[in-house]
Each structure stands twice: as structure tokens, then as C-alpha cells.
Amino acid sequence: MKVFNSLIKRRFGIIYLFFAVFLVLSFITRTVLLIKSLSELSLTPFLLFKIYSVGLFFDVVAMTYWAIPFILYLVFVPDKIYQSKAHRPLLYLVFFVNIFLLLFSGVAEYYFFNEFSTRFNFIAADHLKYSHEVINNITESYPFYTIVGAIVVVSLILFLFLLRHLERTIQVKSSLKQRAKTGVVFLLLPLLFYLLVDISFSEISSNNFANELSSNGFYSLFASFRNKHIHYKTFYATQDNREVFRHLRALLEEKNSSFVTDDFFDITRTIKNEGKEKRLNVVVVMVESLSARFLGVFGNSKNLTPNLDLLAKQSILFTNLHATGTRTDRGLEAVTLSVPPSPGRSIIRQHHNENMFSWGTIMKSRGYDLKFIYGGHGYFDNMNYFFSHNGFTIFDRDNLTNQEITFENAWGVCDEDVFAKAKAEFTQSYQSRKPFLAVIMTTSNHRPYTYAGGKIDIPSGSGRKGAVKYTDYAIGKFIRDAQPEPWFQDTVFVIVADHCAYAAGRISLPVKKYKIPLLIYAPDHFAPRKIDKLASQIDIAPTVLSLLNFNYTTKFFGKDILKMQPDQERAFIATYQKLGYMKSDLLTVLDVKKRKALYQFDRTTGDMKAHAPDENLINEAISYYQGEDYLFEHQKKK
Questions:
Q1: Cβ of 292: how many Cβ atoms within 10 Å?
Q2: How high is the pLDDT of residue 508?
Q3: What is the pTM of this model?
């Protein structure tokens, strides 16, 4: 205590005081999150020690970054101003605001962890850009103002408790030379940490929850900004480009395909399908967060999806399809562009994504209308820009009149309203005698999980189960309302999730939490059946085009699921950094720092264990991911 008191009695004592507050609140946050995660941790004394010791290290790193403005201020403000009565209220206010921000961040991180099972990361960084949706979503999902009021009260109590110590930091005089020496020492710490520390230092275990707990939310957020653009060639295992494309062309080859050129770096192929071409309309319903495990046909006994379960019996049902990622833009990227996921941001959110070769390219060449219909604001995740610059007409929240909206929340209008708008647009295309490809993105199965009352037997706002059941209700109503329409019999409905509801788990790529349903419904054209082949979202467009008997030129990475041979079955799953390649019961993972790993997984339980390296699988994974990166960088997919 004497040491602490001696440190406080100086100009930079406020930094030590702040450090103490930061460390205590970080410790409390980590402990609360650990208690919440106990069921996911195989906790041992040694693992507990690693969580708290490595966590303390990241807390120290984070607080040195946070303190930089403080340090600069303390160096350059002269004693005459710093010790004046007029300055004290400002100093008190700054200290109080920082206590409030630390407490607020701790509470926010608890709710973030509850939703995503991670500390603050790139998702939080991305959401900072969409403050309107995020703030409204928070206020509709939680007792926001009550929580903020409680944080203000606790902050005030803590501030008053520390006030006498804060007073002591003001009383000691110091020269600019003294302050500069101390300031340089303090500023060297964040500089050294920036150069030497990496977020990967928090990977202390094979358990993803343990790794998250050993990190610090502020540092994780900083790291996500720092690593916003992840270049494949810099961070991942690579091979010679010619070797990559030699493998890739072999992997993409199908019995009914032929390459247009002998150029190794060109994957353009012609696809020839037998039978008369069917110029049917195609409606792709991308359902927000619809994990396969929610559906009765996948074993759920809670009757959450009676409409989808009925449709599944009348559709071609794919039971082993996997989402490429954990975000909506990833799902849209996979379905429209038919490409594996890239590290970092999806193509939809990157620059130079105009006029890409897409599903729309093929349909537009045949005279189809292209429509993207979304219940929220399409500027979110750059959706409007991407679709409008790739041939689609946009219909989002801003295109809906007040008369067309029966219910809306922070995330957008309800799914019924989206489907009603879609139905009207389809009728307009039909009356213009134009076939259409439409991508509909739903919103209701997203927090705050609210919808109009009287639709289903679960109250609005009560959680995920109600949102799933409402979305199912809206889809069923959409199909029933569409049946009398003149365009219905000549329309293929493709119903698929954008991603799963909860993709986090004990391991970084939990294969079971990427499994999503796919229904292709056109009862007048395709007989119901069940397809159990391992496949990916990127295979949807080629499969539908095959069902339509289209002959076309393609640059897709996806393949027709129906024609896949057992040795061709594979899927791609990814996070922001980890790139997964599934084949049979093996998962190859490519990671930053050029790391490679192979795991064997149990299809039923999802349990995984390390497996001996398989060079063939590693080469296949690299060929897909490096090849996709090369083509996007060289714009050969256009």
C-alpha cells in the first residue's frame, strides 16, 4: 500500500490510479465471462492459471493503448494550468467518463459474448459503422436505459471512492523535463506492444472459449481494426501459382464441362446439360440465421418450422449443406458468386467488386430481370452497392411505403412485408413478360426477435425460438399467397440460410454449427427427394442451373451437387481468419502465419480430434483458397 501511495503522489499518479481501475474491472469482466462459459470449458487448475496470467498480460497491453491520450496530456499541460482550480472539474470529468466507459464496455462485452461467444472482435468493429441499426437493436432487445442508469450510479460511487487519491495526483509540481522523461517511458510500452504482441498469443488451448477468455476485449477490437485487410499471400500457406491452378482446374472439372482455353490461370468452362432448357423464374429466399437444427426434418422436436417441414417433403431437400461463414454477406457472396470464402472481409464488402461474374450474369444474358429484395437498409454490409453494381435492381426498406409496412423493428420490416413486396415485384415482371431471378434476404430471425402479435403461439420478443417460428410462418404464407399467381407454376423457390444462428463453439470451426437447410421447391417440375451429399452454399447456383438444363459459360468454383461423385463432395467453412476445407470426415484448416492443421470430426456429435497431415487435402484446400484470391486480385472473375 505504501508503494501505491508513493506512486499516486505525483503528476503521473493518475495513470497508476487508472491502471488499477482498468485491471480490476478487466479481472471482473473475465471472471463473469468465465463463469458463463463453465459448461464449455474442461477447466483444470493449469488452464485457469493460463487464462488469468495471459489475460493479465493482454489487460496490461490494452490499458497502455487506452492511456496514450492521458500520457500526452500529462506531459504537455504545465503545472500552472494543471493545478489551477478551473482545471480540476475538467480532470474530474475526464476521469469519471473513463470509469463510465470502462464499466459500460464491460457490460456491453457481456452481452456481446452472450450473442457471439467471443470478446469484442471484427463483428463489433463492423457494427460501429452502422450505429443507427445497432443502437436501435440494443434499445429494443435490452432494458438499455435502466442499464445505463445503473452504470452511471456505479461509476459515480467508484469515482467518489477514488476522489481523494485523485486529489493527491494534482498537488505535486513537476518540470517539463521530468514529465517528458516519464512520458517517454510510458509511451514506449504501447509502441513495443504494437511491434511485438499479436492476438495469436491468446491461443493457449484447443478450446476456443479458453482462448477468448485469455484475451482482452479492447485489445481484440484493436486487433480487428489492425487486421481488417488480410492478404492471403502474406498470411497463409501458398504454392506456386501454376501448381495451384493445375490442381484447381482438375478439381473443377465435371463430366459435362470443358475448359474454354488452355491458359492455366483461366477457369472459364462451358457447361452442357441434357434436355430442353426450362426458362423458369428463380426465387432465392436467404433466411436469416436458419440453422438446420431448428427444422423438424433435421430432428428438432419443438415444432418450430411446420411450414418448412411440409415444404421439405415436397422439395429436393439437401441434408448435408454447409454455410461458408458466419455473416449474412458471406452467405450472399457464396450463393451469388459461387466462390469460397476469402480471409477477412467478404467480396461484397471489398472494393472493386463491380461487374463480377455471378449467377446474375448468366440469367441476365437470357433476358431475366434481376432483383435484390431486403427488409432492412441495404447500405448495411454494402449490400446495395454490390447488388446494384452487379446488375440487380434494389428493393430495401427505403423503397417501402408506410402502407406496405405492417410491422418493423430496428433491423427492418417483418418478413411478411418483405414477401408481399416481392410478390408484387414478381407480378410486375410477369406482366412485362420477363422471367426473373430474385434474391430475398429476410430479417425477422434476428435480434430483437420481434414481430406482430397473433401470428404464432410464441410471444413476440421472447427469443430466438419465436423468431424462427415466425419466419417459418411468413415463408409458409408467402408460398400459399403465391400459389394463385400466374407466375407460380413456372417458378423455382430456393430456400436456404445465410448462416447458422450460433457458429461459435469450443473449437474455432465447429462443423455442426455451419450446417444449414437447402430446399429447392418447384412441385410442377421437380419430384421430391432427399440428397445427403456433402456440399456447400457455393454449389447452389450450379445445381439450380443444372435443374433448368441451362447450357452456359461459367467461372464458378461451385459444382452441380446432383452430379457429384463421392470423391468430389466437399464443403468450405470459415471464420474471419481460419479457412476450412471439409472432405469426408476430415477438416483441413488454413490459418494465419501459414499454419496448417487437419482434424477428424464426428458427423453426429461434431467432436473433433487432431489427425495426421494429408498433403493431398492440404494441396486441395490451398488450391481453392489461393486460386480464388489470385483471380479476385487479377479481376479474372469479371
A1: 24
A2: 78
A3: 0.83
